[in-house]
Amino acid sequence: MNNKILKSVAIVAGAYVAAQMMADVASLRIVTVFGLAMDGGTLIYPLTFTLRDMIHKVAGFKVARTVIFLAGGINIVMAGLFWLIGILPADPTTGPQLEFVTVLSPVWRIVFASILAEITAELIDTEVYKLWVEKVTKRYQWARVLSSNVVSIPVDSLLFSWVAFGGVLPASVVWAIFLSNVIIKGITTIVSLPGIYLVKERDDSHIT
């Protein structure tokens, strides 16, 4: 890879991992947007699908898969770090500092649900993107992003909603979270579609 491509990979991969991390932290809170219940991570997480497609386009299939697993590993380490800091005794001269524990101490079921949904959906997204480029066409780049997201978004939303909140919240609330996730992620997909044109395609990106 030349320096320009390496720079593009670094920027897009960094943005992808950062968005994954922010989404996992924000997912700890359920909010309402336009009357729809959703986890806070939904406001940033949908961008990761297009960012992953951008990584695939500029760096290839293997790099895209590697970044997916890297993001999952980083999120596990982040949750473990927050847990460790939360159980360590606070310095007595600064007070109990309960705010950190209240806000950032991981809810392990939500952490597991987030990472499971992220890795599963992103791997599906990668396969559909690869299949589109190999079997359909390399033209109409917006279509490859749209087709991969149409498959991966419902899978991601269903896994996260029910693994994180099934049996804890009323079923009606869980389905509302699922529906709002699909709607917001779908809108974000449409808005972020032009992003795929911001990076240059690697000649062999569909086979590497």
SS-based class? mainly alpha
**Low-confidence segments:** none
Rg, nearest Å: 18 Å
Secondary-structure element series? HEEHHHHHH
Ends: how far apart? 13 Å
Overall average pLDDT: 87
Give the amount of beta strand, in percent.
under 5%
Keywords:
two-stranded antiparallel ribbon; globular; 208 residues; mainly alpha
Provide an overview of this structure.
The structure is a single chain. With 208 residues, this protein is mainly alpha-helical. Helix content is 71%, strand content 4%. The chain contains seven helices and two strands; from the N terminus they run αββαααααα. The protein has a two-stranded antiparallel ribbon with strand order 1-2. Helix 1 (3-26) packs across helix 3 (61-87), helix 2 (47-59) crosses helix 5 (108-136) and helix 5 packs antiparallel against helix 6 (141-165). The longest helix has 29 residues, at 108-136. It is globular.
Please provide a brief summary of the model.
71% of the residues lie in helices and 4% in strands.
Task: Reconstruct the topology from this structure.
Layout: H1 3-26, E1 30-33, E2 36-39, H2 47-59, H3 61-87, H4 98-104, H5 108-136, H6 141-165, H7 171-192
Antiparallel strand pairs: 1-2
Helix pairs in contact: 1-2, 1-3, 2-3, 2-5, 3-5, 5-6, 6-7
